[in-house]
Amino acid sequence: MQKSIVNHLFEILDKTALIIQTNHHTTYLEALCSSGENIFKDQIEQQDLKKELAPLYAKFFQEGMTAEDIRRAFQLAVLKGMKSAEERDHQITPDSLVIFMGHLASKLMRGRSFSILDPAVGTGNLLTGILNQAEENDGCAFGVDVDSVLIKLAYTNANLQQKDIPFFFIRTASGRCLLTRSISLSVMFRLASIRTKKQRRHLH
Q: How does 125-157 read in b/e, with b if 16+ C-beta sit within 10 Å?
């Protein structure tokens, strides 16, 4: 039986994340972020693993694949990572809710431009799912979170889907939440999002 595009993408994300996790002694979710960055930057940062990773990355982009295919595949990989002992305090928005909210937003907006802010963006699953169901270029999105691992997952998720979404990390200090003033984080997200626009020929 022929594998679906989602399963194909998940297998590549999963295999490459496991390779990075095993060899660089990191968590699965951190390795998933590293693998995703390798894909959307088209550059393998782990030079010692290049021979193992390059053949898998070469098979990632498929004819007819969509941003929604990538979102679902990335979601499966994230769910796998969240089952580990180190990441059990993390949760992801259920796919049924993503589909419902995306359908609701598309019906309410009816082709009109809109902006959406997710103040607890998590992995960006809900935010990108809504944008995927909106008409082309109708939606403008922003994401905020207090968890550094989740915000990096959201950044990776959005860039793999080639979504131009600014993300902001809120750092906690003295019991209060403060929006980080670190230029490197927000600028990194913005530059990565702009760069992915050059690859839109891969998605339909």
A: bbbbbbbbbbeeeebebebbbebebbbbbbbbb
Distance CA 23, CA 34 (A): 13
- Helix, strand, or coil (residue 174): coil
CA 87 to chain centre: 17
Which one, of 32, 122, 111, 30, lies nearest residue 76 by Cα?
32
Confidence of residue 186 (pLDDT cuts 50, 70, 90): very low
Residue with tokens 């550094």: 148
Residue 117: closest CA among 104, 131, 136: 131
Cβ pair 109, 138 in contact under 8 A: yes
Task: Select from 31, 1, 14 the least CA-distant residue to 153.
Answer: 31
pTM for the structure as a whole: 0.81
List, for residues 88-135, the tens digit of each pLDDT value. Answer: 567 777 777 888 888 787 777 776 788 889 999 999 999 999 888 886
Nearest to 6 by CA among 82, 126, 92, 95: 95
What domains appear along the chain, each with residue ranges and CATH number?
Answer: 5-202 (1.10.150.470)
**Which DSSP category does 146 fall into?**
S
Contact between 180 and 171 under an 8 Å Cβ cutoff? The reply is yes
